[in-house]
Structure formats: structure tokens, C-alpha cells
Design goal:
Helix content is 54%, strand content 7%. By secondary structure, it is α/β, with parallel strands linked by helices. It has two domains: 6-173, 3-Layer(aba) Sandwich (Rossmann fold), CATH 3.40.50.2300; 193-393, Hypothetical protein af1432 (Orthogonal Bundle). Helix 9 (218-230) packs across helix 18 (373-393) and helix 15 runs antiparallel to helix 16.
């Protein structure tokens, strides 16, 4: 066998390199194809699931190919971790099967390295070992392996585990694609609504910064970050004639404009991963004194995440130029926020904390209170990945 990584097409029958196991693989009853919804994702030519096998022993890789030959998997083989990382860098891999005992870099160490890279952390990993004992299985699972199988392997069990893990991966991929579409739609709405470029990003910055100052949980920070982009997604249902009207809106037009909160919530409600964002979308126009919309909530009836994002939204609207107003300096914007608080519209505590954050960092509008955009993006990616996984594990 050559020194480089090996690429195979659809799996073929194995040669009799290990009689009993090959006979077991050949004699195993034929399993049904994967369920229809799963196959729908891979019915296009070239879209078959890609499986990376990392094992230093050729016989072991040969046996796995025999066990998996009943499905049109694209098999990639690597003898060394370096070869495996070559595949990960240049191809989309849907599942990794790794031997626990690998010279140089052990299976658990390989898992940790893969799972620590946000490009690959959602790829499921199946670890195999001849080493029995709870401590070995724990070492594999705690390093990031999603499943652990002991040798000798039973072909039916291997196929079932592989199919289950690929279904899981396909579901997460579908969820991420749907979220990407929603976020792209939200950005399109930003431009359609004549907002200054970067409005959604800045709201995400300000919201997460304020949330961190308040000691909010990571799941709430993720909701705030996403809410910065999705809070006005319901405006897709508001006609341009109303959205861009120069004069005052009629009572009927105001009803349509205000409906964007409820419609936005309805758009995002089917997605389990966005449940934490729904209160932001629906309630970010409520007021502390109960005079807001859509439900007239007051005080702490308004979810905290919605109150936080509301402060960020107003601050950005005040400090950026709009077709109907110039950009106000940050200090002027904070004065207006305090005036609105005195009228009973805003949460006094949040406005005070936000003001203190600005006083501590005069570059608030540019540096987002010390939260760097790349750091925030990494936070969002990591939290999002963890949450998406939890959605399917419950």
C-alpha cells in the first residue's frame, strides 16, 4: 500500500484476509437501505456520505469496507493522523471512524484535536478499540468520540451505528442550512429597510456586551447574538409602501408595521434551535410601563433578553444616520435613553449599566465595549454548535 492517503469509491467486496471476520461480514443478513428522508439528502450524484477511516492496520480498514459495502458511501482511508487531517482540510467529511491505538497521536488525542477546531467539531466520531474496560471507553468518550465500539466488531452493529450517526449529522446540516437562509434573509431586510450597513452586527455586539456585564448565561448570550440579526425578520411581511413611507402612517398601516413582531416569531418558531430568540423577536418593542406592543407587557414581565436587545437597538438607531435623521453622538444617545427611562419606557437598571459600560470605554460605538467581533463570532459558533447538538440529543 502507498504512503499517501487512500481514496476509494463505492465499497467493494473484501478479500479473505481474515477468514472468520470476513465470513461474518459476508454472512450477515442484508440490512435495509437508510430511511427515505436521510437518502433524500444524498440522492444527487456525488453527494453520498463521506466516511473517513483512520487506522494504521490495513486489514482493519479492509474489514470496515466490507461491512459498509451495502451503502453507497465514499470511503477515505488514512493510516496516520496527518493523512486524516489532509482529508479534513480538503474535503467535506460526514463521519470519522478511528482506531483508539494509533502510533504517534492516539485516538483520543486525535478526537480532541478534531473537536477543538470549529470547522470540524460537528463531525461525528466513532472510536473502536480492542481494549476492554470502562476506563478506556471513558477515555474515548471524554475526548470527543460520539460512539465507542469494542472489537471484535459485529457488521450489523457497525452498520446500525454508522447509519444512526450519519442521520444525526444530516439533521444538523439541514438545521444549519435553514439557519443560514434565515440569517441571509434578515440581512436582506436590513438593506431593504434603509438601515446603515452593519446595523444587525452592531446590535449583536451591544447586546452581548450588555448581557456579559449582567452575568447572563451562555445560552442567553447566544440568543442575544442571534437576536441582533433576527429581531426584525418579520418585516419581510411588511409592504414596501409602508416600510418606506415618508409621511405619518395611518392607524391601519401602524397595525401592519407592528405586526412584524408576531410574524417574525411565527417565521422562526418551527426551528427548535431558535426558541431562545423568540422572546426577543416578539417583545423587543414592549415598554417598561406597559405601553409597548404587541402584548402590552410591563416591567419584568418583559423577558430580560428582549429588554437588553431593545437598549442596543435604540442606541444604534440613535448613533447612526438614517434617511430621516443625522447620527447623534454617543453621549446624546445616552441622554435620550435616560429621558425615555424617565418617561417609563425603558428598564432603568439596564440603561444605567449600559451607560456605565460606555463611560468605561469611550470607543463603545466602534469597539463594542471591548468585545471584538471575531471573538463574538467564535462565541456564537461554539455556542450554536453545542446547542444544535443538544437539540438532537434530547
Amino acid at each position: 500500500m502507498g504512503d499517501g492517503p487512500k481514496v476509494l469509491g463505492e465499497t467493494k467486496s473484501a478479500e479473505p484476509v481474515n477468514g472468520c471476520l470476513i465470513l461474518l461480514a459476508a454472512a450477515a443478513p442484508t440490512t435495509s437501505r437508510l430511511s427515505a428522508p436521510w437518502n433524500e439528502r444524498y440522492k444527487e450524484p456525488g453527494s453520498e456520505p463521506s466516511i473517513l477511516i483512520l487506522d494504521p492496520v490495513e486489514v482493519n480498514r479492509h474489514l470496515l469496507r466490507a461491512m459498509l459495502r451495502q451503502e453507497p458511501y465514499r470511503i477515505r482511508e488514512a493510516r496516520k493522523p496527518a493523512e486524516a487531517f489532509e482529508f479534513l482540510e480538503k474535503e467535506k467529511i460526514d463521519l470519522i471512524i478511528v482506531e483508539m491505538m494509533i502510533p504517534g497521536l492516539s485516538g483520543p488525542e486525535f478526537c480532541r484535536k478534531v473537536k477543538s477546531d470549529r470547522r470540524w467539531q460537528l463531525i461525528p466520531i466513532l472510536m473502536m478499540s480492542t481494549l476492554h474496560g470502562v476506563e478506556n471507553e471513558l477515555a474515548g468518550i471524554t475526548s470527543g468520540a460520539d460512539e465507542f465500539l469494542l472489537k471484535p466488531l459485529h457488521p450489523a452493529i457497525v452498520r446500525a451505528r454508522v447509519q444512526s450517526m450519519l442521520r444525526h449529522k444530516a439533521a444538523i446540516d439541514t438545521l444549519e442550512e435553514a439557519e443560514s437562509i434565515l440569517f441571509g434573509l434578515a440581512q436582506a431586510i436590513e438593506y431593504r429597510d434603509n438601515y446603515t450597513a452593519g446595523h444587525c452586527q452592531r446590535i449583536a455586539w451591544y447586546s452581548v456586551s450588555l448581557g456579559m456585564a449582567l452575568g447572563m448565561q451562555s445560552s442567553e448570550l447566544l440568543a442575544l447574538h442571534r437576536g441582533g440579526f433576527l429581531h426584525d425578520i418579520g418585516k419581510i411581511a411588511v409592504p414596501d409602501a409602508i416600510l418606506h413611507k415618508n409621511g405619518d402612517l395611518t392607524p391601519e398601516e401602524w397595525e401592519i408595521m407592528r405586526s412584524h413582531t408576531v410574524k417574525g416569531e411565527a417565521i422562526c418558531r418551527p426551528m427548535k434551535s431558535l426558541q431562545g430568540v423568540l422572546p426577543i423577536i416578539r417583545y423587543h418593542h414592549e415598554r417598561w410601563d406597559g405601553s409597548g406592543y404587541p402584548d402590552g407587557l410591563r416591567g419584568e414581565e418583559i423577558p430580560l433578553v428582549a429588554r437588553v436587545l431593545q437598549i442596543a437597538d435604540i442606541f444604534d438607531a440613535l448613533t447612526t444616520a438614517r434617511p430621516y435623521k443625522p447620527a447623534y453622538p454617543p453621549q446624546k444617545a445616552l441622554e435620550i435613553l435616560r429621558e425615555e427611562t424617565a418617561r417609563g419606557w425603558r428598564d432603568p437598571e439596564l440603561v444605567e449599566v449600559f451607560s456605565r459600560l460606555h463611560a468605561a470605554d469611550e470607543t463603545l460605538a466602534q469597539a463594542t465595549m471591548g468585545v471584538h467581533w471575531q471573538q463574538l463570532e467564535l462565541l456564537n459558533k461554539n455556542l450554536s454548535s453545542s446547542y444544535n447538538l443538544s437539540c438532537f440529543q434530547k
